[in-house]
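lol so apparently i was supposed to do this last week
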Amino acid sequence: MEEKRENALEMGKEKKAQDKESAEEKGRRAVILLFTRISFVDAMYDVKDIKLAEQGKLQLGWAEMHMPALMVVRSELEKSKPLKGVKVSACLHVTKETGVLMRTLKAAGAIVSIAAANPLSTQDDVAAALASEGINIFAWKDETQKEYDENIEKALKNGPQVIMDDGSDLHATLHKRKKDPRIIGGTEETTTGVIRLRAMEKEKVLRYPVVAVNNASTKYLFDNRYGTGQSTVDGVIRATNIFIPGKVVVVAGYGWVGRGVAMRFHGMGARIVVTEVDPFKALEAVHDSFEVMKMEQAAKVGDIFVTATGDLNVIRVEHMRSMKDGAIVSNTGHFDVEIDVTGLRKIAKEPKRIREHMQEYKMPNGNRIYLLAEGRIVNLGAAEGHPSEVMDLSFCNQVLSALYVYENRKDLQNKVYSIPKEIDERIAYLKLKSMNIGIDKLTQEQKDYLSQWSHGT
Ligand SMILES: NC(=O)c1ccc[n+]([C@@H]2O[C@H](COP(=O)([O-])OP(=O)(O)OC[C@H]3O[C@@H](n4cnc5c(N)ncnc54)[C@H](O)[C@@H]3O)[C@@H](O)[C@H]2O)c1
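anyway here it is w/ nicotinamide-adenine-dinucleotide bound
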C-alpha cells in the first residue's frame, strides 16, 4: 500500500514536471495529478492559464456566499454521496456559478467533465480553479467554432452516464452518432434546448430521458426573467457604456426573457418598443405600457435592439438598412442566429473594433451600426451572465434533476420530463428560508373550500 502510494507520488511529480513544460510550451494544455487525502484524482484539462486558479477560487467563494440554497443541497449530498462514481458530462457557460454547481456535483460523488456552452462565455479564472480541483474541463474564453466543437468532444471522452446541457448541443452531438448504452439520461437548462429535445421526442429519436430544468417554476420565472433582465442590461452597458434614460430600446420577443429585459431597461428610463409574433404576448406588452409594432417600423426608431426570441433571422438586413446612424444591435437569445450577422457582413464595410465586444459596421448608406458580442448571447459574451442569487435557483434544479434522472433510471422513458413539483417547491422554500421569509400555510378549512363546488354566493 505504502509502496503503491510512493509510486503514485513519484508518478505525480514526474507528470507535474512534464505538464509544466507542456503548459508553458502550448500556453494552456496540461494534465495534472492531484493527491488528495483519500485518492488520486486524475484531472484532464485544457484551459487558458492554470495560474489563474487562485483568482478563480476567490470568485467561486464569492458566488457560494450568494447561493445559499445550493449550499444546503450540497451539504446534504456530500454526506450521502448519491452520485458516487457517476460520470457526468456537462456543456454549460463556465461562469463562477457553474463552478459552484460543478463543486456540488463533485461533492455528491460524481466524476465531472465540462465544456463551454458558448465560445465567448467562459471565465478563464474559474476554469483554471475547477481544473485545479480535479474537474475535467475544456474551455476558454474566445474559442473558435472548431475549438468549441473539439472541446465538446473532449468533455464526452470519459463515457458519461448523465448529460447536463444548456442549449442541447451536447444532446444533439450524441444523437448524431452511434447509440451509447452507458448514457442513463440528462438535463437541459434553457428554452431553446428544450425546444430541440421536444423535436427529438416528437420524431421518436430521443434515446434517453431528459429533465427540462427550464420548465421548473424556480427556473424560468426567475432566471429567464429577472436574471436575463439584469445581466442583459449589464452586457449592453459594459460593451457600450451608453446612457440609458430616454433611449428607445427595441425588445424582440416578449416571452420570459423579453419581459425581463424590457422591465429592466424601462426601470432605467428607456422607452420600450416590443416586437412579437404571438398576439397574446403582444397584448400583454401593450398592457405593460410598452409600444408594440412590427420590426420594419421598430428598426427606424430604435437606439438599442435586443433580440430575445430563440428564433432565426429576427433582425434581417432589410431592417438594418433602415436603422438610424449609431444603432446598437445585440442578442440575448441562446444561439447567434437571431440577427443576420452573415448578411450584415456581406453588405457592410469591414467591421471596425471600437471597444471590446463592440464592432462598427458601415452600411452602404453611410450609417453606422454597432454589433455587440458578435451577435452572440450578450449577457454572457460582454458581461458575466446572471448574478449568483438567481443561478442559486437554476442550479439547485440542475443538480436535483441529475439526481432524479439517476435515481429513477429504471422507470423513466425516452421522453422530456418536467421537474417534479415537490422538488421545484422544495427549492422555492429553501430560497425563501435563506432570505428569512416565512409564508402562510393553507388551513384544513381553506383546503376543503378550495376543492369543493357547492359553496357559492
Ligand atoms: N441570455 C440568457 O442568459 C438566457 C436565459 C434564459 C433563456 N435564454 C434564451 O432566450 C430565448 C428566449 O427564451 P424565453 O424563455 O423568453 O422563451 P419564450 O418562449 O418564453 O419567449 C420567446 C418569445 O419570442 C417570440 N418570438 C418568436 N419568434 C419571434 C419573432 N420572429 N419575432 C418576435 N418575437 C418572436 C415568441 O412568440 C415568444 O413570446 C431562448 O433562446 C432561450 O434559450 C437566454
